[in-house]
Amino acid sequence: MTRTEVTTETEGSGPSGYAAARLRLLQQEARSGPPRRAALARLTDDWLTGLFTAAATRAGVRGAALVAVGGYGRGELSPRSDLDLLLLHDGSADAAALAALADSVWYPVWDLGLALDHSVRTPGEARKTAGDDLKVQLGLLDARPVAGDLGLVASLRTAILADWRNQAPKRLPALHELCQERAERMGELQFLLEPDLKEARGGLRDATALRAVAASWVADAPREGLAEARRTLLDTRDALHLTTGRATDRLALQEQDQVAQALGLLDADILLRQVYEAARTVSYATDVTWREVNRVLRARSVRPKLRAMLSGGLGSKAAPERTPLADGVVDADGEVVLARAARPERDPVLPLRAAAAAA
């Protein structure tokens, strides 16, 4: 289905036209994975654009835009994903007109039974809310214009990214703490019989957190295999949504064979093997990335003059702090390295101790 066909059908037929086009798209077995997620996002964009444009004209609202954030902003719509939308405005419209515009967009979404996370804010309000709520800020990092004033959205994106980078020394440790708390609560995906594809450690939440870290310019994740791992987890969630008809991320035992079949796999064992491998890739990238983030932030926080004084004078360069971890192994600014006195050629067990210390 081309973009022109989608636009004609959804805008001309209203919610029922969008629902029918959406159903046909989800039933196309030959169209799955990233192409289907992108097509579903485009289809939804076109429908919402029609709703927004008509409503803005009726209400006489200018200086407003409809913005997709979070997973929808990334164009990663699974069959049962919720729509995360921001109605952004410049503050010039009166409250009644703005409320009428919002209702004209939100209610058709609800009428179709789609889950909706929505807000109405000015750029200043959006930045303030993001500054107070880390989860809101993370969602806005993926903000994408759907309809309306593109310049308004572009200025917000620029401001949000600048805020994120400026606040990285405070925000990244908070994000790391959130990830650790979630991992303790949900477990390690690769070791679970009924894993949560989104919330468990090594799942989609961690993959999204890595994107946020990269956007901060503090550190970047190892790229090898990461995109494919993310795709595997997303494809599995798509199949899970279609198989169960529910917005669930938990791959329950009784549904694993059906999900495997939907993905063209022989059985649940092969499915879990692929999911676990993807989770291991994300977990490894997560470990490496957060270790680098901690190292960089720790180095930034140490005052150069103080380090120089402690090392014996302002003219000398401060040596990195080294903390013993095991015999012949130390922690140097967050990295596990061999001690200066270590002799690997005389100590065959040294690599094992180093690996254990780094684990």
Structure description:
There is one protein chain. With 359 residues, the protein is of the alpha+beta class. The protein folds into three domains: 3-166, 2-Layer Sandwich (Beta Polymerase, domain 2); 170-301, Nucleotidyltransferases  domain 2 (Four Helix Bundle (Hemerythrin (Met), subunit A)); 305-358, no CATH class. It is 60% helix and 10% strand. The chain contains 15 helices and seven strands. The strands form two sheets. It has a four-stranded mixed β-sheet with strand order 3-2-1-4, sandwiched between helices. The protein is flat. Residues 1-13 have low confidence and may be disordered.
Share of helix, binned: 55-70%
Number of helices: 15
User: What amount of the residues lies in strands?
Assistant: 5-15%
Which CATH class of the largest domain applies here? Alpha Beta
* Radius of gyration, whole Å: 24 Å
Name the shape in a single word.
flat
Distance between the termini: 49 Å
Question: Largest sheet, if any?
Answer: 4 strands, mixed
Mean pLDDT: 89
Number of strands: 7
